[in-house]
Amino acid sequence: MGDWTPWHIVALFTVLALAGIGFAALIVWYKLGRRRQALSDMSPDDQAARLLGEAIGRSDGELHTDTVDVVFAIFARSSSEQKRTLVAAISGMYDTAPDGYTTCPT
Q1: How far is CA 31 from the centre of its chain?
Q2: What's 60's DSSP letter?
Q3: Residues near 58 by beta carbon (within 8 Å), at least 6 away in sequence
Q4: Residues 75, 86: contact at Cβ < 8 Å?
Q5: Residue 46 and residue 78: Cα distance in Å, rounded?
Q6: What are the tens digits of pLDDT across the range 69-104?
Q7: Contact 85, 93 (CB under 8 A)
Q8: What is the pLDDT of residues 42-70, one digit of tens each?
Q9: Integer angstrom CA distances of residue 74 from 32, 34, 50, 77
Q10: How many CB atoms lie within 10 A of CB 29?
């Protein structure tokens, strides 16, 4: 590296950074494709159940067990349309809450 100019070093780091970003994008694309494939193989009710579990899993223990039991009981008694609506509501609540947390009435 004795005859490298600063521009050579900047170019090298730029190429390495772009390669790293490209590799990360490839990993994300692959994982999202696998998730899409897994969800497409499920029935709508199974998709709603999985998404509900993921949404409740994002609560990191902030929800009381009784609250989760009530949510699952309501989910089990609901029609397919109501299940998808319930999951969308819970997912939206966690997506819009600051830092992913929200206060849920118990």
Answers
A1: 11
A2: T
A3: 94, 100
A4: yes
A5: 13
A6: 888 888 888 888 888 888 888 777 776 766 555 454
A7: no
A8: 777 787 888 788 777 777 777 788 888 88
A9: 30, 30, 15, 5
A10: 10
